[in-house]
Write a structure and sequence with these properties.
two-stranded antiparallel sheet; 65% helix; Sulf_transp_TsuA/YedE
């Protein structure tokens, strides 16, 4: 167990260093490698939303999935499976993304933002923790999305194959792919470096089961610090690089791709953290599970894409100017919906 924990700490630290270095190499400030933001950018590149400043096929996402696939196959952990309430998972993935885009970042980016001095991230992280605590209450009542059953081998490769297709689009840039000319979508590291970094992160995340919500869940639910140690090590890795490069800017105002509305930073991440807890993992973990052959995680990713499209098409997503017009209403609706799922799908509701 000590060896596994040391590996988690090393993996978290390496991930943090790589994430911070990606900002140095061209990715948006205090973003590095944000899973939710990058799925949002890919969604825009495919034309699912038309927010022109956030459209780019992020090779990091494709790399994470393919790196996790390689690791899973190499260590004989690729196991095609699915059928565990896919529609519910799809909707949870959608609301996960809506909450993340009200905050402007997933649980990974919340840690990155804090390590860059963005104090608004404190409210976001508090929201993740509070959402996880609510999710724990449902888990203790017997919440369960059901057991996945073994599936056909080919189905397990569907999400990785989609990622290969997206990577080909990123390389050859067909005319139907959108790409930002300004804004966060126009800020990116060189493609090959982004892909390599994604491959490394994916392999590390697959071998360690890294999860930026599961760490908080296990800490409070069973007092297990294994996953949480990865979050701490990740924060240290980002902080070290930021200090070396002079990228720490402590304060609330003027932070990159962030707003200062404390209430909705918190509430957005409550929705995100709760959804992730019921799903069994954050967007990073869902990507890795999909690479291992879990088609339920693949359906969750499809929900994440829809959540990005809905957020930008219906004025839910926040921006540096503030919270989106209908973002607060969407978060409240999402919390009611997700809590209903948690309550009525618990054994305690019977």
């Amino acid at each position: 167990m000590k060896t596994k924990k040391y590996l988690m700490i090393i993996a978290g630290f390496v991930f943090g260093v790589l994430a911070a270095c990606m900002t140095v190499l061209g990715n948006p400030g205090n973003m590095g490698v944000c899973i939710a933001c990058f799925y949002r950018d890919i969604s825009g590149a495919l034309g699912l939303h038309r927010a022109e400043i956030v459209q780019y096929l992020r090779p990091e996402i494709m790399g994470i999935c393919l790196g996790a696939l390689i690791a899973a196959v190499a260590f004989k952990e690729f196991k095609p499976r699915g059928g565990s309430n896919p529609l519910v998972r799809f909707l949870l993935g959608m609301f996960l993304m809506i909450g993340a885009l009200v905050f402007l970042g997933c649980p990974v980016r919340a840690v990155i933002r804090l390590a860059g001095g963005d104090l608004n991230a404190i409210f976001g992280l508090a929201g993740v923790v509070f959402g996880a605590v609510i999710g724990i209450w449902f888990l203790r009542r017997g919440f369960n999305l059901g057991r996945a059953t073994p599936g056909h081998t080919f189905t397990g490769y569907l999400i990785p194959l989609i990622m290969v297709l997206l990577l080909l689009f990123a390389v050859f840039r067909p005319e139907f792919i959108f790409q930002s000319k300004e804004g966060p979508g126009a800020s990116h590291a060189p493609l090959i470096i982004s892909l390599i970094v994604g491959l490394i992160i994916g392999a590390l995340a697959q071998r360690t089961r890294m999860c930026f919500v599961g760490g908080w869940r296990d800490l409070f639910l069973v007092k297990d610090t294994y996953l949480f140690s990865g979050i701490v090590a990740f924060f240290v890795g980002v902080l070290v690089v930021n200090i070396i490069t002079g990228a720490v800017n402590i304060g609330f105002e003027g932070q990159p791709v962030a707003h200062t509305n404390a209430l909705w930073n918190f509430m957005g991440m409550v929705l995100c953290g709760l959804s992730c807890t019921l799903l069994g993992g954050c967007p990073l973990r869902q990507t890795v599970l999909a690479a291992e052959g879990d088609t339920d995680a693949g359906v969750t990713i499809m929900g994440i894409f829809l959540g990005a499209a809905v957020s930008h098409n219906f004025l839910l997503a926040s921006s540096a100017k503030g919270v989106g017009l209908f973002g607060p209403a969407a978060v409240i609706i999402g919390l009611v919906f997700v809590c209903c799922i948690g309550y009525f799908m618990s054994e305690g509701a019977a």
